[in-house]
Amino acid sequence: MIEYRIEADTAGMRLDKHLRKRLPNVPVSHLFKMIRTKKVRVNGKRAQPEQLLSEGDVLTIRGDEQQLVGAERPKVDPPPPPVDPSRLVILREDDWLMAVDKPSGMAVHTGSGITGGTLVDYVRAWLGPKAVRNDFAASPAHRLDRETSGVILVAKRRPAMVHFTEVFTHGLSRKRYLTLVKGKMPRDSGVIDLPLAEHQQTAESKARRGVNMQAAVTRWKVVKQSGEAALLSCAIETGRTHQIRRHLAAIGHPVAGDKKYGDFAFNRDVRARWGLKRLFLHAERIEFPHPEGGAKVAVEAPLAAELRDVLKRAALVP
């Protein structure tokens, strides 16, 4: 029999996910059978696969300990690509989180077509042995597009990730972006309240229930305006994929340098005249309650030098 107490850094994890990490050599089907046949108990009571573990819970697993933790070793994941952690720009760090200034062109996670080091690789290289804590590996708490630069939060402990999941799910954070867009804005500020199609909806889902439209709200304010472009400050009330880029394109003011939703002739022009070689979208500031105690924290990332140079050439320096 195996029996142990759940520690703080494991709190908030689903039981079935915790068991897969704790007993990696046991087939998942067998783990669920053990739960179903009451061989896994939490505080002496019958457990459920989806229940969330709390600090201090006593987990009991009935069975031969040597067979459960021994057996054939699992496959080893390939090592991450070599990266230079000194390249990472840390805006804030404590025992719970990191705030990183992500450069444009760096993907947050691995995925199809992603080569080279990701933000995850750099963060874990920076933390070294401290990157993994009680089976939780430090991970980004939200997303930024690959070509978007700026501040992104990383959870260093599982309770921090649980906290940030609640924060971003319930809109308890405030994010501000700077972006350069095509054209003259009709007024000094405005709100784009326009539902967006779910970005990764499957073909099967579309066939069954049609395109799933999701509520999306973006607030914008002119920081500096010229006759042919505007520097905007944008705040998002929802976190849809490519939200700012899709919303601004929808009202006829696409983001400069946007290869997916942008105006290609405008992009060629600003590249030739102002030297813009990337997407002009920067996550400038984020406010959020801290995982320990809930005190309000604000972190800012300065505009990259290459974008400041573009603003100088465009006569749009605020």
From TrEMBL:
Keyword terms, alphabetized: Isomerase, RNA-binding, rRNA processing
Domain of life the protein comes from: Bacteria
Biological source species: Myxococcus fulvus (strain ATCC BAA-855 / HW-1)
The protein, known as: Pseudouridine synthase
Family: Belongs to the pseudouridine synthase RluA family.
Enzyme superclass (EC): isomerase
Active site: D145
Function: Responsible for synthesis of pseudouridine from uracil at positions 955, 2504 and 2580 in 23S ribosomal RNA.
MF annotations from Gene Ontology: 23S rRNA pseudouridine(955/2504/2580) synthase activity; RNA binding
Domain RNA-binding S4 intervals: 13-74
Catalytic activity: uridine(955/2504/2580) in 23S rRNA = pseudouridine(955/2504/2580) in 23S rRNA; a uridine in RNA = a pseudouridine in RNA
GO biological process: enzyme-directed rRNA pseudouridine synthesis
Any one Pfam family match given in the protein's UniProt record, by short name: PseudoU_synth_2
Matching Gene3D superfamilies: Pseudouridine synthase, RNA-binding S4 domain
EC number of the protein: 5.4.99.-
SUPFAM superfamilies: Alpha-L RNA-binding motif, Pseudouridine synthase
Record SMART domains: S4
